[in-house]
Design brief:
- Helix content is 50%, strand content 13%.
- The protein is an alpha/beta fold and 185 residues long.
- The protein has a four-stranded parallel beta sheet with strand order 2-1-3-4, covered by helices on one side.
- It is built from seven helices and four strands, in the order βαβαβαβαααα.
Length: 185
């Protein structure tokens, strides 16, 4: 068997002992990595990660996704592990979970990225709200100089030329001229 096929089992109690899990797994594997629930450092999982780092193209079988839950200290380490699987082109197959057996784990990474973006958005919203309540400014400082825009327009420059010269967008030039016009009325 030339392909890298690894099996990771974690024993938590008698019901999920290694011997009880092996027949249910029923896969041919090259290497078996195991941990016992009361081991806090997860030496079997650490060896598995080292082995994946030194391998390419393979399959990692786990009994279920809960086998991995206590192997990570943070969401970041969880994401790093799945990114490693993807970089080393390892398939992850959870044998007892009803999860599609994807050739890579990008579906998990995508959901974590979405979750991370939502948390970041919530954090920004909360911090903007706090700044507003404190009377502080929110967002980027205004960079539009309406007087300069008007001056360049009177010199005969087009919206595009003004935008390029002032390093602003064309719509900002248009708004600058519009606000200058409204101020005069």
């Amino acid at each position: 068997m030339n392909e890298n096929v690894f099996l990771y089992l974690r024993s938590g109690n008698l019901r999920l002992s290694f011997e009880n899990q092996k027949p249910m797994v029923g896969v041919n594997y090259n290497e078996l990595f195991t941990d016992v629930s009361d081991e806090s450092d997860r030496p079997g999982f650490s060896k598995l990660v080292e082995r994946i780092q030194s391998s390419f193209d393979g399959t990692l079988y786990i009994y279920d996704l809960l086998s991995l839950d206590s192997c990570f200290e943070s969401l970041e380490s969880y994401l790093e592990f799945f990114a490693l699987l993807e970089r080393r082109r390892f398939k992850l197959i959870a044998l007892t979970d009803k999860i599609p057996q994807h050739p890579n784990v990008s579906f998990l990474l995508d959901s974590f990225k979405r979750c991370s973006k939502e948390l970041h958005r919530e954090h920004l919203h909360a911090s903007f709200s706090k700044r507003k309540l404190s009377g502080l400014s929110v967002g980027r400082p205004m960079q539009r100089n309406d007087d300069k825009i008007q001056e360049l327009r009177e010199e005969g420059l087009t919206f595009r030329e003004i935008a390029q010269r002032l390093n602003v967008s064309i719509s900002m030039v248009q708004r600058g001229l519009s606000s200058k016009f409204q101020d005069k009325t």
